[in-house]
Design a protein that fits this description.
- The chain has 182 residues and is an all-alpha fold.
- The protein has one domain: PhyR, sigma-like (SL) domain (Butyryl-CoA Dehydrogenase, subunit A, domain 3, Up-down Bundle), CATH 1.20.140.160.
- Helix 1 packs across helix 4.
- The chain is globular and about 55 Å long.
- The N and C termini lie far apart (54 Å).
């Protein structure tokens, strides 16, 4: 396999890792990767017709395009079901963590993040995309990427420290709680 198909095969492990982080379930992740690769093959002409520095013409530009397809497919699936899928299994994200308890805690905290925050955190931290690239993948403004990432990091920090979630009703000191009005 050469060319486009070969690049897809080479990027499949990274897509699978990212999908496992998004869904938290191996079977759902495999389905998402398969749907993403199928759509990429069906619409390969769209990738080639997109000129620009960010999209590029090789594997450097193909990964962000595939991640964009994956996120849109994931959003469509969540919207169709009109609920967030919660599973008891943890994503199998390979990370060089020597303490298995810490790895388990990280995966559990990642699973408790809201979908939008988890997506941004995975793109920036795991896939190492820039804020601008993550904004293009998710089709949101760069400021939204930065705020979601900050919230995700703070939420992860509080979950890992064992602190109750701040800003939630029913937690913390009732005389010292702030309420968001919007």
């Amino acid at each position: 396999m050469d060319g486009f198909e070969g690049q897809l095969v080479a990027l499949a492990p990274r897509l699978r890792r990212h999908a496992r982080g998004l869904t938290g379930d191996a079977a759902l992740a495999d389905d998402l990767v398969q749907d993403t690769l199928e759509r990429a093959l069906r619409y390969r002409w769209r990738f080639r017709l997109r000129p620009g520095a960010w999209w590029g013409d090789g594997t450097d530009g193909l990964l962000p395009w595939l991640l964009t397809l994956m996120h849109r497919l994931r959003l469509n699936a969540v919207r169709r079901k009109d609920l967030v899928i919660a599973t008891d299994t943890l994503p199998d994200v390979s990370a060089p963590v020597s303490d298995p308890g810490l790895r388990r805690d990280l995966l559990q905290a990642l699973g408790q993040l809201p979908e939008a925050q988890r997506a941004v955190l995975l793109l920036v931290s795991l896939e190492q995309l820039t804020y601008a690239e993550a904004a293009k993948v998710l089709d949101i403004p760069i400021g939204t990427v930065m705020s979601r990432l900050a919230r995700a990091r703070e939420h992860m920090r509080s979950l890992l420290d064992g602190e109750p979630a701040r800003g939630r009703s029913g937690s913390g000191d009732p005389g010292n709680s702030l309420h968001r009005v919007k």
